[in-house]
Specification:
Helices cover about 60% and strands about 10% of the residues. The chain has eight helices and seven strands, in the order αβααβααββαβββαα. It is of the alpha+beta class and about 300 residues long. The longest helix has about 35 residues. Strands 6-5-4-2-7 form a five-stranded antiparallel β-sheet. Strands 1-3 form a two-stranded antiparallel sheet. It has two domains: about 160 residues, Four Helix Bundle (Hemerythrin (Met), subunit A), CATH 1.20.120.80; about 100 residues, no CATH class. The chain starts with 16 loop residues before the first helix and ends with a helix.
Length: about 300
Amino acid sequence: MEIPYTVKPRPDTGLYNAKLGIWLFLASEVMLFGGLFSSYILLRVGADLWPHGMLSIPIGTFNTFVLIASSVTVVMAWANLKLGNPGKFKFYMAITILCALGFLSVKSYEYYVKFTHYDVWFKDDATAEKYFKAAYGEKGPEEVRELFVDRFHLHNTNAKYDPAQIQLVGHIAGNPLCTNLKKLLAAKQETIKFTADPPKGSHEHPHEIEVKLSDVQRLSAYVPAHSTFFAIYFTITALHGLHVLGGALVLAYFLFTVDKWWKKAPEQFTNRIEVGGLFWHFVDLVWIFLFPIIYLL
């Protein structure tokens, strides 16, 4: 028994089966990501303080162009099938998959950087001031306030300057992955070697200081447990990354089976590429919304 409407459109919808199915699926995806973006907006608007400048804009911009390029190449792959040229289809589809792998590689590097970057909160203001001076030298109140403003948007009227919010920001010697104060104390470690980041726009060379764990109230890498910002950042970008990976696997299947399907059912295979391309365009569109909201604003 042959399944109808795998090539020709249905008379009631004007779409063949797979295309109708992908549009229904994408509608559910819009609701999924729409809920996450709405949650992000509500959490941000309701926050007294919101981190700023925590993500690399050049890296995010590069990844944006990679995904935009992949949208172009997947269209070119489909167009060459419509023209009856499976050889060029393979070329453009291979580029699309390479773009996907490049995007995921860059995202993995971003995650690694965050998992080895730390904030340290101290038990009281006097202790924080001691380590702050050890890391940055003598700085006046205005310079300290500038460091604070660099890290947070003071757009909320309830957000006040709080010296206790000035954490030491930097790296622990050896670049440990996702450790925290509880793990260090359980390992009976008493101190850490900490290299503070230089202030933005400064040409100061960072230097290593010794921090006693008995003076530390909290220590966290830039992981979901760090803050609301990183919790939603990792939730949305990881989910998006899984969509990129899933889409790349499907496109890779099409690439490696094109010869078989082209001989067996060329029109149906071409329709499958169109459906895969629609999903890929959706993945790219999500990132185009995600990049300015998370990275730029």
